[in-house]
């Protein structure tokens, strides 16, 4: 159909989260070395207009909610050039320890996300 497959937008959200944390100086690989894991527990995406192949897309990601053991990221996908909002949504992640059990978010991480 010449448009971007809908499931790719969840991948774009993940790319946004990954780069967001990297820009804070805390890549996912460092969290995993410290045995802190952040699985997605909920995801939502609302599609506004189609993205076409070869469109350049901008991923905007920010923290919208920070709790004791969870964090919610908001995401917007914008098409470069006409600045059209292509899609928007959120992902919620839970903080797990080395045993993969829910745990309080490390203070270091919480401060960075605030």
From TrEMBL:
Transmembrane segments: none annotated. SUPFAM superfamilies: Thioesterase/thiol ester dehydrase-isomerase. GO terms for molecular function: fatty acyl-CoA hydrolase activity. CDD domains: 4HBT. It holds the Pfam family 4HBT_2. Keywords: Hydrolase. NCBIfam families: YbgC/FadM family acyl-CoA thioesterase. Belongs to the 4-hydroxybenzoyl-CoA thioesterase family. This is Putative thioesterase. It comes from Candidatus Jettenia caeni. The lineage of its organism: Bacteria, Pseudomonadati, Planctomycetota, Candidatus Brocadiia, Candidatus Brocadiales.
């Amino acid at each position: 159909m010449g448009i971007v497959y809908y499931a790719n937008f969840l991948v774009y959200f993940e790319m946004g989260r990954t780069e967001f944390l990297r820009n804070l100086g805390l890549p996912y690989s460092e969290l995993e070395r410290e045995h802190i894991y952040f699985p997605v527990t909920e995801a939502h995406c609302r599609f506004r207009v189609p993205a076409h192949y070869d469109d350049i897309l901008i991923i905007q990601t920010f923290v919208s909610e920070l709790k004791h053991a969870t964090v919610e990221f908001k995401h917007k996908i914008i098409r470069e050039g006409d600045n059209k909002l292509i899609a928007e949504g959120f992902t919620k992640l839970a903080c797990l320890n080395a045993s993969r059990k829910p745990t309080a978010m490390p203070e270091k991480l919480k401060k960075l996300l605030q």
